[in-house]
Specification:
Elements: H1 3-10, H2 14-54, H3 58-67, H4 72-81, H5 88-106, H6 110-137, H7 147-208
Helix pairs in contact: 2-3, 2-6, 2-7, 4-5, 5-7, 6-7
């Protein structure tokens, strides 16, 4: 069955399903690029920053973070390290506040994915119902077994195309949405882990009375 025949069989609901498919693919591509960039660079950058800070090279750590400010953890660290002489409680609050601010970035488009996953099967079901209504409307009860009955059977078969299309769109989007949700949860765990390490290092420097910040240029 060609694309044109597929759309003819599925009825009018195939157009919103096509729009959902195009939108879903565009969002998936954006999220893949986002997570690939983070997974390729972020862990290495954060480990380097923690090592620099552990070696009392605060300026080097700040420079490293500023050069990688497109990464969520780098922005979180910068928000805390750019404070001038904060006490440990203020430092912790800065980490937590910026972490909360990064959550919408990490969860971006999640609501759109969930909307597509919910609506696509319903649109497919709507297409089937409309197809059945059209098919039975053309049925002549006095012509049971005749040519009109055969056309009704064919119409029912074609109407099911919309349901199948809706399920395909929903399943496809669901697989990627669950993958992105898993990456988000892993990122939250890393933020807590690395943020805790930085906070611990800061507390040690603060208790020793060392300079805990670097003047930004």
């Amino acid at each position: 069955m060609g694309i044109q025949n597929l759309f003819a069989a599925g009825g009018i609901v195939m157009w919103p399903l096509l729009a959902f498919s195009v939108l879903g693919v565009a969002l998936i591509i954006e999220r893949i690029r986002f997570w690939v960039r983070i997974n390729q660079r972020q862990n290495r950058v954060v480990r380097d920053v923690l090592n620099l800070y552990r070696l009392d090279n605060v300026v080097g750590a700040m420079d490293k973070l500023q050069k990688n400010a497109d990464l969520p953890l780098a922005r979180i660290f910068l928000a805390a390290l750019e404070l001038e002489e904060p006490n440990p409680e203020e430092f912790r609050l800065a980490l937590e506040s910026e972490s909360q601010a990064e959550i919408p970035v990490l969860k971006r488009f999640q609501n759109l994915f969930e909307t597509i996953i919910s609506l696509a099967p319903l649109l497919g079901l709507l297409g089937t119902v409309l197809g059945l209504i059209t098919s039975f409307a053309s049925l002549n009860l006095g012509d049971v077994g005749g040519s009109k009955t055969a056309s009704v059977t064919a119409g029912i078969s074609e109407a099911l195309v919309s349901t199948a299309s809706g399920l395909i769109v929903a399943i496809f989007i669901l697989m990627f949405a669950n993958t992105f949700r898993g990456l988000y949860q892993r990122q939250i765990a890393l933020i807590q882990e690395y943020g805790g390490q930085l906070e611990l290092l800061y507390r040690r420097r603060y208790e020793r009375g060392e300079k805990t910040y670097a003047t930004t240029r």
